[in-house]
Amino acid sequence: MIKVIKFYADWCGPCKVYAKTFDKVSEELKDKYEFVNINVEKDTTGLAAEYKVNGIPTTVVIDGDNVKSESGRMDEKKLKAFIGSE
Asked: pLDDT (tens digit, 9 = 90+) per residue, 44-79?
């Protein structure tokens, strides 16, 4: 299953705005994709470092060996296109 990871922080204003869009899309597409939220300040997995997250919010899509990353907020249409659902 394709994994979609959102990296964020609680204090980040753009992250709070983006969270609504990410949550809406994740609810719509939860049967096709695995959605994960990772707070960079509490990340014990090391994924933020592994995927070289330098800014937040950052969205990472992992499809087998293919990994793509996008920093910044996206609207619903752009997020779906980035994931590959449209």
From this structure: 889 999 999 999 999 999 999 999 999 999 999 999
Is residue 85 situated within a structural domain? no
Per the prediction, the chain carries an average pLDDT of: 95
Q: How far apart are CA 33 and CA 21, in angstroms?
A: 15
Q: Residue 58 gets which letter from DSSP?
A: E
The owner of tokens 């293919």 is: 66
This prediction has a pTM of 0.93
Is 76 among the domain residues? no
Among the listed residues 4, 12, 25, 48, the single catalytic one is 12
For residue 28, the domain's CATH number is: 3.40.30.10
For residues 59 and 8, is the Cβ–Cβ distance under 8 A? no
Give the residue-averaged pLDDT of 16-33. Answer: 96
Residue 36 belongs to some domain of the structure? yes
15 is catalytic: yes
Catalytic residue among 4, 5, 8, 15: 15
